[in-house]
Amino acid sequence: xxxxxxxxxxxxxxxxxxxxxxxxxxxxxxxxxxxxxxxxxxxxxxxxxxxxxxxxxxxxxxxxxxxxxxxxxxxxxxxxxxxxxxxxxxxxxxxxxxxxxxxxxxxxxxxxxxxxxxxxxxxxxxxxxxxx
Length: 132
Known about the structure:
The structure is a single chain. This protein is mainly α. It has one domain. The protein has six helices and no strands. It has helices spanning 2-9, 12-29, 36-64, 67-84, 87-99, 103-128.
């Protein structure tokens, strides 16, 4: 219900940008936690950003694709999201072991910055329309 209200107030493109930014802030905040209140704030930001992404992206894909393309496109999007959960913990564990306690948080935050940049590039290309 909350995401539906947010989508009506802001458009999906803005929420697709806001979700990773919220996650990024929460992840960067995680290694700097001085107390339980900041820890809870950080977790809330990460969970909220993820919740926004996981609900708004399929809605957006459904809106911009034809009925014939929706199943395949949503399947690919969900497959990519699922596949991404495999190397993340492996790389995070490696970073934790060999680069220190805070390294996984800073690396994942940096990855979200790259994702945000790609999002801007993709939406800019979508706004111009297909190449002829």
